[in-house]
Structures are given as C-alpha cells and as structure tokens.
Design goal:
Layout (H helix, E strand, L loop, with lengths): L1 H8 L18 H19 L7 H18 L1 E2 L4 E2 L26 H14 E2 L2 E2 L14 E2 H13 L3 H12 L11 E2 L6 E2 L5 H18 L29
Antiparallel strand pairs: 1-2, 3-4, 5-6, 6-7
Helix pairs in contact: 2-3, 5-6, 5-7, 6-7
C-alpha cells in the first residue's frame, strides 16, 4: 500500500524534509526518497517478501531518476539543487550518493559536495540550505548535515576529509556526549531540540561509512545486500541471528 501510494503521488510537490513554510515545491530530496522507497519495495516483491507490482514500481522509480538527473542537477552551478530547476542549494542532496541513487564518486556528486561546502559551510559546520524558507530570522548549523557530509566524503574515498569533518562535528557534543539538533558554529552552543535523535543517527551512519571506507568498501549504500546467504552489516561482518 505504501509503495502504491508513492508511485501515485511522487509527481506532486511537497514541503520537503525541512517542512518549509511556503508553497509546496518539487524538492530533489523528496523525489530521491520516493525513488528509494519504490526501488526497495520492488526488490522486496521480487524476493517474495511482500506482494505487489514490482515491474510497475521499477518503472516509476526509473521515471523519478530520469527526472532528477535531468532537472535536479544545475550545470551552471555544478550541483544537485534544492528543487527541480532551481539554484538554491540544500545539504539534504548529500544523501544521493549514500542511498545508491548515484555513484558517490560520480563527478556530479563530487561537484555537489564542493558546492554545498562552499555555500553552506561556516567554521566547519553546514547549514541546511540557502534561500527563503518562509520563516523569519536565521538559523544555526544543522548537525545531521555535517554527518551526511562526512559519510558522503567517505563514500567518495575522500577519507581524510571525512574524518576531519567527523571530528569537527564531534566538538558539538556536551560533557555527556549528547548532541542537539543545531549548533552555533562560532560558540559551539547547542541550539534547537535536545537531545536530537536525528543527530545521533547521523553520527552512527557516518562512523560506519568511514569505517567501511577504511576497509575499502566505498561506494556501497548504507544497507548491505544479503551476501553468500548471510546477513551482514555495512562492514561485511555477520550479524547475530534475528538482528
């Protein structure tokens, strides 16, 4: 039911991952998440884990990917943008190379990483986006974005840069090792929701991506396939039964 809903609705505009307070738009991140859902649903149906029209979901996923590659990448800027046909940047597009939508070392992904850092980074911390979001005032750096960046760099085999970004982000922890949603890049004061699970999930995923890169497993999405009949974690290690 979820996959059928996504297949029927992905062409509609939405408010994006950050819930912008303005007219719905065609956010690149949202389209890629629809592609991700349809791709995984099709694989589950093909593996007889669920029932559904895998061929239909594959066709819709292909249509999403074609649209994003055609209209979501701004060739003048050299980056995937916040919305289709747009010019504003958004750190959420860093996940494109993490979920398997595009190879993490694809030139378009590499130039996107550089453009996001150039426009959204302040003292080693990323803001979520530039441009108007319909909310008055500014905002602090968003920690999940830094962890996406660290993971994206690791997947692109820029391991030293990934480790430096990861280490810088860890400076936002308090004395208990907890992190907020945002951080003041100048003072390292916590901002927003605290503690924020999103930030800690980002930490775990970035750490796994860096560890995998150290082992030469770059280029793989977060979720490993079943290998030789055994479920493995991102590092290729066998997981306990039922995990």
């Amino acid at each position: 039911r979820v996959a059928d809903y996504v297949a029927a609705s992905w062409r509609q505009p939405d408010s994006g991952i950050w819930e912008a307070r303005q007219q719905p738009q065609h956010y690149v991140h949202s389209k890629v998440m629809a592609w991700d859902a349809l791709t995984h649903a099709a694989k589950m149906a093909e593996d007889r884990v669920i029932r559904g029209d895998a061929a239909h979901w594959r066709r819709e996923a292909a249509a999403v990917r074609e649209l994003v590659l055609e209209e979501g990448f701004n060739r003048e800027i050299g980056a995937f943008t916040q919305v289709l046909g747009g010019a504003a940047l958004d750190a959420s597009v860093l996940v494109l190379g993490l979920v398997g939508f595009i190879e993490p070392d694809d030139p378009r992904m590499l130039s996107t990483i550089d453009a996001v850092r150039d426009r959204l980074e302040d003292r080693g911390f990323l803001c979520r986006y530039d441009g108007d979001d319909g909310v008055a005032g500014g905002e602090s750096a968003f920690l999940i974005c830094n962890f996406w960046l660290a993971a994206a760099l690791a997947r692109a085999n820029r391991i030293d840069d990934a480790k430096a970004t990861f280490a810088r982000t860890l400076e936002a922890r308090n004395d208990l090792g907890l992190m907020a949603e945002q951080v003041d890049a100048e003072t390292l004061d916590a901002r927003g929701n605290f503690p924020q699970g999103f930030s800690h999930i980002g930490l775990v995923n970035a750490a796994l991506a860096i560890a995998a890169a150290d082992r030469g497993a770059t280029g793989k999405p977060y979720t490993e396939a079943v290998v030789a009949g055994h479920e493995t974690d991102m590092l290729g290690q066998s997981l306990p039964s039922g995990s």
